[in-house]
Amino acid sequence: MLVRLLDDPVPFLDHSDDEVRRLAISVCIASGLTEESVAAIGRLACEDMDGAVRAIAAEALGGAGERTVAVLDAVRSDDDPRVSEAVATAYGELRHREAVPWLIDVAAGDGDRASREAAVAALGAIRDEAALPVLLELVSDGPPQVRRRAVVALTVFDDPAIEPAIREAARDRNPSVREAAEMVVGRQPN
């Protein structure tokens, strides 16, 4: 079965075993997404019963270009946080500006940390100025992982408020946030 899956993963996207479907998606990605595999993966992102399959399918769509945006828009309200994280990642890969309001809501919201982190990273990748206020707020007020991501995301923008915010982050109580900021502005005196 494994050899057949490696040779032609698309038929295995309908396999009854969740792990086989996830593996088939990975093989499709590695071998290059085709129109047929994108359609099947889009269906899995929307309809699969397994949240992990929906998540890997949604993330895979980020590598398939703008033609997948409608599917991502449809699945971004999925209750499984793994899917929200995957959709945010895919939007970032696509640099999809129309997703910025949703990404801002996820980044600033009370959702799970991984989804918020992915949304912040996507906002940095997209580089839309509308994200600046929330990124500046999150660099000092978010959970540590989100603050660290916000430091990195802010480095792509050009605004006078960014340098002071990153300098302040270089004195953050969390070592990973400090380290990210110090990589940008250098070590800060205590």
Could you write a compact summary of the structure shown?
With 190 residues, this protein is an all-alpha fold.
Summing up helix and strand content along with how strands pair, one would put the structural category as: mainly alpha
Total number of β-strand segments? 0
CATH A-level architecture of the largest domain: Alpha Horseshoe
Q: What number is the mean pLDDT?
A: 93
Number of helices: 12
Poorly predicted spans: none
CATH class of the largest domain: Mainly Alpha
Molecular shape: elongated
CATH homology superfamily name of the largest domain: Leucine-rich Repeat Variant
- CATH fold type of the largest domain: Leucine-rich Repeat Variant
Ends apart, CA distance between termini: 60 Å
Instruction: List SSEs in N-to-C order.
Output: HHHHHHHHHHHH
Estimate the helix proportion, in percent.
55-70%
Q: Would you mind describing this structure in some detail?
A:
- This protein is an all-alpha fold and 190 residues long.
- It has two domains: 1-88; 95-190, Leucine-rich Repeat Variant.
- 67% of the residues lie in helices and 0% in strands.
- It is built from twelve helices and no strands.
- The protein has helices at 2-7, 18-31, 35-47, 51-61, 69-75, 81-94, 100-108, 113-126, 132-141, 144-154, 162-169, 175-185.
- Helix 10 packs parallel to helix 12.
- The termini are far apart.
- The model has no long low-confidence stretch (mean pLDDT 93).
Write the layout of secondary structure elements.
Layout: H1 2-7, H2 18-31, H3 35-47, H4 51-61, H5 69-75, H6 81-94, H7 100-108, H8 113-126, H9 132-141, H10 144-154, H11 162-169, H12 175-185
Helix pairs in contact: 2-4, 3-4, 3-5, 4-6, 5-6, 6-8, 7-8, 8-10, 9-10, 10-11, 10-12, 11-12
